[in-house]
Records
---
Amino acid sequence: MRILIMRDGNAVAEINGQAKTAEHLGWPKEMVSKVLNSGEAVDGITLNYVLERERAGTAVIAYTSTTATRFKSLSECARVYGISRTRLERLIESGATADDGRTTFDIPCY
């Protein structure tokens, strides 16, 4: 698992595994494990596991006059509406409605 090394609240490095982290810091592996489990700082250094991010595509929102449905990806939205991903991309670019005549699609801005 990836470990984030922070010194005085600033990210310093992200390293794969406890052994490599111990080697990087010049600490025994047991010390790395102890600091990870306690969450306490040692000489201003804290360690945290890096949470794996969910792989995500381009989010899409499907709008009708009464609803707005968010999809995690273009592919998910295309499957639900029974259209190809390419067709969905064209509908987003043009702003045209889907074949039902009432649904439009957009990519949210964050």
---
Amino acid sequence: MTIPRPFFSCVCVTCARVEHLQAAIAAFLAQDYDGQSELLILNTCPRQTLNISAPRVRIINLERRPASLGEARNMAIEAAQGTHIVIWDDDDYFLPHHLTAIANGFQNAPPDRRTTLDPNKTVCEWIWLGKQFWGWGDTIKEIVPGQCPCFSFSKDAWRSVGKYPDLTVGEDRSLISRITTRFPGALVKIEGMPSFIYRWSNNVYHTSGESDDTPERQPAHARYWADALVRLNSGKEPHGNVYLKPHSSVDWPALAQAFMDADSKKKSVNSVCIVQLGRFGDIINILPIARHLYLTTGEKPHIMINREFSRLLEGVSYAAPKAVTLNWLHLNTALELAKQQFGTVVESQICGQGYTPKKRMVAFNHESWYEAGFASHFHDAAFPLVFDRRNAATEAAVRNRLFRTNKPKIVTNLTAAFTAPFHMGRQVALALQATYGATFEIVDIGTLKLPHVYDLLGAIEHAKVFVSIDTATLHLAAAAPVPLVALVRNGWEGALPRFNCAARLTYDNATPERVCDAVGAAIHWNLEQGAQIPQLISLIGGLGQALSGILQDVPQEVQKLPPEQIEQLTSMVQQSQQITQQAQQAPK
């Protein structure tokens, strides 16, 4: 069904504000709306008779003042000829696309329910524009949610709910509440420039800013008239016949465009925002992406991050925190907030309220890179994990607390995990001590509570082998050139190490004996092949080892994957094994 363009009656109730009224008329005449429209001016000042010669503008001059603003608005709407009403207060400003924006809402926005006026109609009886400019004096300060003047309604709905109440303050809120309760409509999302400027501090008496009427003081309607009489008696307002000349002393369309241009530049400076409301490990996982964006654009990307974890970014120079109080459940809210403030939004989070992970990669942390658009660089050595604001003194203090002997170190975190605790952690720790304690110092970093998790890097880098369960320290290991034995959750929820992976065991398979065997292999790998082994062995060989383990340990789970994903896994394993063999045969 094609919905016709509304016939708008723009209703302006005025009293002794000629200069502002002329600007409001000029704004109406500048509208680009291609449908029918009229401007109906109800003059409630008996000491002025307003006259104008302008198309589609009508003036009704009253000989007595109505008892309230609500009564005056009802009188104006009764005289209106249009099917839909737009409030056109004389102290605000309406940009040329205002009526078009409202009409597009009435024609295109889906109503929130069917109308009770005619059950067969599926049209909006009201529209509320979602954004407006906030003006102060002759300037525009900000964009804010649309308020009562952004509400437009059908004349039928106005009549059906009993019209405006006999109030001067709050009459609009009452009508809006009754119309939105009874009739279908829509809140219209404004993507570009708002069409309405809500003006304050513009040398007029704002009754709406004086709060609701109370028995203890003079009614707002009377207070306004007292202010108008002062201006009339002092000559600030003309008497008698007044011939209106539509014009505005302020170029509001130019100010609005300048504001939008400045806002666009501000968004350009803050051009990229990566949304990641997860915990430390989730944030560490995507830091290489942030560094890449900084190196390629020259601008620091922001990371929208829960305030609890924002100190992590004190360790890097290439990303700025956008700290919020939202947690990981509020992904949709965070994305909307980021889109309002930044030119480009990179979504790296893969979970949230109402969000089902798509599981296109073999592990959740690789999935995060896929979501951000960088899946092919997950094992790319050109995307290293870098903490370039490390504190050497703090790291030395951490080592002094942890290291008790001159023995080579096996550094572990087997017990400290928030999201994915490992129930065999203490048994594995005891087995490592019994197996390797005579030759190596077994160091547990899980007991430390540090302001910055990256302060552990100084200890990890001094290890011969690092053993970590599925938590932040496992992701942190990508920044240290040390063989990693990774103990991870089962299936897709288990992290896939990016670099230096000597072994990857799922929690179901990580018995004390198997972990000890994996550590022994990692020690042998580290001692025999030495520091000159090409990075391809740790980069690609480690990946192949991890993927081979997945394919061999959980064949039933792999068979459930789509055929193209199984083909991808098989190809990656074969390629990694081939490159590993070539690297191992290379001269040392």
